[in-house]
Amino acid sequence: MKKTIVDYKLTGKRVIIRSDLNVPIENDVITNDNRIKESIETIKFAMDAGAKVIIMSHLGRVKTEEDKSKNNLEIVCSKLVEILKREVKFIPYTRGIEVETAIANMKNGEAIMLQNTRYEDIDGKKESSNDESLGKYWASLGDIFINDAFGTCHRAHASNVGIATYLPSGVGFLVNKEIKFLYDSISNPKRPFVIILGGAKVSDKLGVIKNIVTIADYILIGGGMCFTFLKALGYNVGSSLVDEESIEFCKNIYEENKDKIILPVDVVTGTSFIPNTTSRLTSISDISQNEIGMDIGIQTLNNFRKNLLDANTIIWNGPLGVFEIDKFSTGTRKICEILGGVKGKTIIGGGDTASAVIKFGYKDKVDYISTGGGASLELLEGKELPGIAIINDK
User: Fold this and answer.
1) Which stretch of 56-70, 175-189, 247-261 has the lowest confidence by average pLDDT?
2) Dihedral in degrees, nearest 10, Cα atoms 354, 359, 363, 366
3) Identical topology for domains 5-173 and 181-380
4) How far apart are CA 39 and CA 176, in angstroms?
5) Looking at residue 376, what is its pLDDT?
6) What are the catalytic residues?
7) How far lies 322's CA from each of 104, 116, 257, 273, 293, in Å?
8) Taking the CB of the first residue and of the last residue of the chain, which one, N or C, has fewer CB atoms within 10 A?
9) How far apart are CA 366 and CA 369, in angstroms?
């Protein structure tokens, strides 16, 4: 069991909190502030305890100097202040005398936020490659390190593994909650245990399928990835997305686990990825050559519902259709509706699935929405997450 923020005396200590404030921004407006809200509890706890709080986060990908302006964390700091209702001073640097002076002048209970950690990727990807000197430098700024950024726990970066290598460390409330819901649900699920897998490519979830098929009672497959399975079984899937390199894998894993893997029996098709494309509901055996599978059908939903209503643990990763287009959103929206009314524990695996659940108004009707799509996928694969593994044990 890993140490958490409550295992340390924080008063007067310089506490570095690695948050996940990587939020979507369009035209200088944050379009989804969920990750900021989820980070508040840990930051507030440290401030209330009298710590000198140093907040770090990445934002987007920074490969060129031009990327810096659109991935400047200052706008995120302003939103954090608005939600937290406390002052957080923004320091527009990742290192140097300005950072060191600001920290030296901090009083107990105050907080600052440093600039985007990925600004350090401009010169040799120092952040993303877990540069030893950068991790050691950032660690020198603090006394205790708290990792509360689950969304980056599957990566060994200087701002998580690097810092934790040199400081006493623990996880924040958000990461601790992720561990509780995801680790516990996968390692010791209350059965029946049902996994819903969607999204585009099978190749993105090969490891997940290999691992989870040995654990789950049922795997319900929709989204673009189902068409690779259907083609592997001999169906004509028209112009639907197919992961050609995964066909043999799909055929073999299905043949070995027919009793567990539930595939669509009908789909809603379109002819292009535009809102006004022609659409129709059809059996999987009657897809025309020019049609693209865009959503699961009514009978498939009914089949999925039977498995979900009896389940005691449900994890969902990947939308079941092109939910961004209204006429192809029914499958994803109806699964949200079903999960909102089941008796079992419901966990949403981050990314686009989380966006869909929030969009359709079911955020408060599921038990947990993970903040880390990639990290939750690697947990489902059975992998150890380096950002958690490095944290001190109790």
Assistant:
1) 175-189
2) -70
3) yes
4) 12
5) 87
6) 35, 201, 351, 374
7) 51, 32, 27, 8, 9
8) N
9) 7
What top-level class would CATH report for the domain 5-173? Answer: alpha beta
What is the Cα–Cα distance from 360 to 66, expressed in whole angstroms?
A: 35
What confidence tens digit (pLDDT) does each residue in 137-162 have? 999 999 999 999 999 999 999 999 99
Q: Which residues contact 132 (CB under 8 A, 6 or more apart)?
A: 162
Buried b (16+ CB within 10 A) or exposed e, 169-196: bbbbbbbbbbbebbeebbeebeebbbbb
Give me the residue spans of the domains in the chain: 5-173, 181-380
pTM (2 d.p.): 0.86
Which tokens sit at 370? 């993970």
d(CA 83, CA 66): 29
Banded model confidence at residue 262, pLDDT cuts 50, 70, 90: very high
State the pLDDT at residue 80.
98
- Give 202's pLDDT tier (boundaries 50, 70, 90): confident
